[in-house]
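Researcher: Hi, I'm a grad student and pretty new to this. My advisor asked me to get structures for two proteins we've been looking at. I'm not sure of the right format, so I'll just paste the first sequence and hope you can take it from there.
Model: That works fine. Here's the first sequence with its structure tokens right after it:
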Amino acid sequence: MLLSMGTVFALVDGEEFELYRNDGPEREPRLEKLASPDLEATNFSAGARNKDKISRFTAGAPKDREKRLDESAHAAAVTVWLNRQVQSGAIERLVIIADPRSLGEMRRHYHKDLRKVLVGELHRTMTGRPPAEIVKVLQAAS
């Protein structure tokens, strides 16, 4: 995966959102952590379609349903924020690294402009990992 200078990396899971920018050359990427915005998850209908996937016979189903709704709303809020950053020109190249469920929800909310600047996706949970490990995983994904 190309890690060209200036590329922004969004790491997302059901609860966390981290941003990095490559400040080094492509051959020697150096991820610098950026401030992540405080997002308010308001689109709780985003995960509503998933409620039927939880069996009514599963113990704790209401708790699971609520957690999934929260995670889906978080993924939708991250995507709305990324869409705005792309449309304002603040992000010109983007890589999204997210757990499979979050990535699936995010894809539903991608704006066409975000799709144009998206240079890669990786369905993996990488939040909380050191930048060197993130780079190693991205380089292995090439």
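Researcher: Oh nice, that was easy. Here's the second one.
Model: And its structure:
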Amino acid sequence: MPRLFVALEVPEDVRAALQELTLILKAKSPGAKWTAPEQMHVTLKFIGEVADEKMNPIRTALQNVNSTSPVELAFRGVGFFPNEKRPHTFWCGVKASKNLAQLAADISKSLEPLGIENEQRAFVPHLTLARIKSPSDARQLVAASRDWHGKLFGTTRATEFHLFSSLLKSSGPVHALIESYSFVKETA
């Protein structure tokens, strides 16, 4: 069964800036699982494993998600989940217009009738840069990342979101685009 998620794409200039950052910081945490630039995205909804017969209903439900305006995004700063003392995930921050959280909620709400549960955690837009395996990998990375806390990596305006499948491999997940959805209604 494929694993599915809904996400926003990251523009090439932002990917390039983040790739420069990760090339610098990889040496500080070689045991971490670093995200390849082509795999970077802003997740709006993780759906999980889905039986084939649910694929078309999911695609149809996503077609009905709309917004009155594009989403403005600024990729700024870095940090850790859950925090610097116990880092498991190294991320790039995403500052977004208010309608991003509403878009994520609308996507989740559209899928709920299909038995796909709403996320219980608060929506925190971010780009995962690395998954940290051990405390020893984290110490130097946390210290080195402080120079990048306020750095702006780029901005974009999104008018569509995408449904992806994710295949887990030993080298990391490989994402494949299934379908794109324009969520901004055309106004005359």
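Researcher: Is there anything I should tell my advisor about the second?
Model: You could mention this: The longest helix spans residues 12-25.
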